Amino acid sequence: MQVAAHHAMKPFGTIVRCLTLVLAITSIGCRSGRASHKTNEGPVRTTIDVQNQDFNDMTVYVIVNGSRTRLGIAPGNKTTVLTIPDYLLTGTSFVRFVADPIGGNRTPVSEEVDVTPGDQLVMVINPGG
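^ thats the sequence. predicted structure below, dont judge the formating
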C-alpha cells in the first residue's frame, strides 16, 4: 500500500508499499487554525474519489476512532466519488480506509492518514492477484 499525503503546509509524507491499495491524499486550499464547515455555497464536502481498477465491486469503509462507517460501493473498473459524513470529522481527524471486495477474500486497509473537512481524497484500488 502506498500512502502519499500532501497538505497545504506539509511536504509529501512517507511512502509505504504493502498489499494492492494506493491512497493519495490532497487537501484543497490553505488551512487556517480552525475548520469552517460552511461557505457561501453551503456545507463543505469531504470526498474520496475511489478508482477501482479491480474486477470486484468493493464496499468502502472509513475507520474513525476505531469505529467503522460504510461510505458506499465502488463498482469494479469504475471511478466513484463517495462523501465522508461531516459528523465523522472534527477538525483534523486520523482515519483509515477499508476496501472490502464483494465476493473476494482480500481486504486492503490504508495507513492512518489525517483528514480535515473539505479535503478531497483519491484512492486507487489496483487489480488483485
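The chain has no helices and eleven strands.
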